[in-house]
TrEMBL record, chain A:
Domain 2Fe-2S ferredoxin-type: 2-79
Protein name: (2Fe-2S)-binding protein
GO molecular function list: 2 iron, 2 sulfur cluster binding; metal ion binding; oxidoreductase activity
Classification via SUPFAM superfamilies: 2Fe-2S ferredoxin-like, CO dehydrogenase ISP C-domain like
Highest classification ranks of the organism: Bacteria, Pseudomonadati, Bacteroidota, Cytophagia, Cytophagales
Keywords assigned: 2Fe-2S, Iron, Iron-sulfur, Metal-binding, Oxidoreductase
Gene3D superfamilies membership: 3.10.20.30, [2Fe-2S]-binding domain (1.10.150.120)
From TrEMBL, chain B:
Entry-linked InterPro entries: Ald_Oxase/Xan_DH_a/b, AldOxase/xan_DH_MoCoBD1, AldOxase/xan_DH_MoCoBD2, AldOxase/xan_DH_Mopterin-bd_sf, N-heterocyclic_Hydroxylase, OxRdtase_Mopterin-bd_su_IorB, TAT_signal
PROSITE patterns: TAT (PS51318)
Gene Ontology molecular functions: oxidoreductase activity
Positions of the Aldehyde oxidase/xanthine dehydrogenase a/b hammerhead domain: 210-296
Domain of life: Bacteria
Pfam family, one: MoCoBD_2
Protein name: Molybdopterin-dependent oxidoreductase
Amino acid sequence: MAKYTVNVNRRRYEVEAEPDVPLLWILRDYLGLKGTKFGCGIAACGACTIHLNGNPVRSCQLRISAIPKNSEITTIEGVGATVLHPVQQAWIELQVPQCGYCQSGQIMSAVALLEKTPDPTDKDIDSALAGNLCRCGTYDRIRKAIHLAAGELKN
Amino acid sequence: MHSTDNTLFKPGRRDFIRKSGLATLGLVIGIDSTARAFNITRLTESVTPFEVSPFILIDVHNNITIVNPRNDMGQGTIHSVPAMIAEELEVTLDQVTIIQSDGKAKYGPQTSGGSSSIRTLWLPLRKAGAATKEMLINAAARRWDVPAQACYASGGKVFKKDSDVSLTYGQLAEEASRLEVPREPALKQRTDFRIIGKDLKRKEIPARVTGKAVYGIDVEVPGMVYAAILHSPMIFGKVVTIDDSDTLKIPGVLRVIRSERKMIHCDTDSVAVIASNWWAASKGKNALKVQWDHAGLAEKLHTDTYFEQCHAQVKTEGINHHETGDFKRKFDSATSRLDVTYETPFLAHVPLEPENTTAHVRQDGSVEIWAPIQGPGETLPDVARYLNIAPEKIKIHPVLMGGSYGRKAYIDFVKEACFLSSKLNVPVKVLWTREDDITQGPYRPGMLSHMQGFIEDGKITGFHHHIIGESILRQVFKGLADNEADPWMGEALGEGNNKYRFKADKVSWTNVKTEIPIMWWRAVNASNLGWGQECFMDELAHLAGKDPLTARLELLEDERYIKVLKTLAEKSDYYTPSRQGTGKGIAIFRSFGTICACCITVSVRDKAITIDKAVSVVDCGIYVSGDTVKAQTEGNIVMGLSAAIKGGIVFKNGICQQSNYHNYHIMRMPEMPAVSVYVMENDEAPGGVGEPGLPPVAPALGNAIFAATGIRIRKLPLDLTMP
């Protein structure tokens, strides 16, 4: 066991854990932030996507001991914590989720995409979201919702 | 603390959560499910807002609660089922609290499955809403001493006509509860619907996009421990020895115990690692050294052997499910005929949320279960029998499912949690890994369709579908005799679902047994049979020198089918000639009471086929939410394409060769074609929506590839890379 300090959603947490515990399980079972989901454990589904210093990262592969000091972590709970993010609003507007389980990860990938590419093409969306599986098959609505959110962000 | 009561959502600005549990006077209208006939009746038991009676509860504080008896796996029943009550009750969905039924017998059947939720509840739930409304109106009429005709209900109030006078349902509840329950309340006309048939926004969506929705995996209860379970690499292996020395060294691991997995038709051995957190449990599981007895399983669990046996049965006659017009004699003498086979693979469901359950079997014999399950009403008595505990002592909290597609109607994982908690007497949360999910089954069975057909005078006149493979009815439910054609399989191609008028028509069946465990998967048998049925229609159309859509229209008399096909032709520009190197393919299939036709457009580029576009047309009769119909059909296009172009489940020498999403693939964003869905408008009885969109997808793709390349593919999964 060792002590770690992590900054999640602009809040500082002290965690005592084994060094190999992935951030996913730190978030879920130590900090009670259950919005980040477990789907595969091998970075193949994207359900556990979070932002590490603004970049989308699969939290199931990021050991607590490997997180660089003073990193800023953002989870779905930190996106639109006060006012819904335009991506979340677009998801509601187009009624994107079916079961919704993968959508935390989809939204984290979409938010990161729009921060770097404010006006993405379908190809940009394809490559940014290729790592996020949706078994319900909401891809078409996700694509449309990202375009909708991009338009809102511009205004 | 993520443990919940069963509240799914509640109206804003009102603090409805009162934990006092005080009995509240009120009007409770339910459906007498003991009679199984959905009679409307008054329920006599005392109720509180938290020990709710069936379906509708209105208390004197004007809190209106609707119980949803169909748990949501993403198909929208959380919204569409209560909408049927709200419509007739004359309340908006913003005025009501919706809670999930908890499996108790008073709610009747509670399985979300078979695309049945709207179809089976359409009349009973609307009648319950209408009867309640009528009683409230009658109560108001008495209060005002006017005839009931002088009153009307709207927005949760009863109004006196031509006046400003009104009373809330809460103000009338106590009085109404003493009145006669109308047996045959008047139902609203379709033209008067305010909720049904509109694209209403689902109220739980905000929770699903902010990480706040609570799924099974998110449940936490005080004092719980976590379990990771090592299942046999060959599913049915027996534990011989366990070496847990390395496991017990892992910090957080509490103990290792032998466990069991109750499948419907057999039990299997397993070993559970209990820990204070799930990561430690899963590490402990990986460190276990278990010796298994796998005697005989390498031969039994082998997909190549199974399909070889299926192909060997092509020569046999099979058992007739139905036959008209002396097919065999005519086929034998036909000059223009085809005789081919179509194959579909075994498939896994792979919902993104792996199987999980939290259970607490207490020493006093009471049980509490938090589980993402399709059927709480069926789970409760099943678990009661398994634990040998009275059903009244079991409390189920059905939690949102992170996908299911049939998998979470199979409750082996629920019983694992119950088993472990009964041994430990603390709450246990069982969470499967993706590897457990993919390697342990049960699966959609792989099947072979032996197709024979012939043409006469340029028209398709003879059609035979010989279904070959394993049967869910036989393997799982032990309900099929060797000399009997599987009725469930036959029904998928029977009179109700197949409207082509052939002169000679036959559906036959040969059972090939396997021990690879099988079960429901979205669209069930139709998901297999649509492939052979509708690709072969295409082959026969080409043999007859006809356009495949035109040839189908020639064989149809059913107006709904004809309209669906013609709409598909229009919406997909079907008759506009395709450019060189592109092709359109169509298919139509009826399942679960709904007709769906699909047109797929493909193009050949750089020696690979690209799926450019998918258009589906759905006739599901009257629908509750048009947007849900579209969403489900869009989802079925994606799942149908995954089933067509991604690898299936393969067993070699007892071992499932796929284990996670890196080798069991499903469609990803870059492969996603443009999709559009059109919903037919008519007054027909409601059909299913969750599954009927899937069966026509794969054959539409196969037919499109033929149109673009001249290559006829008869085996799934197909490879989009050109040879």
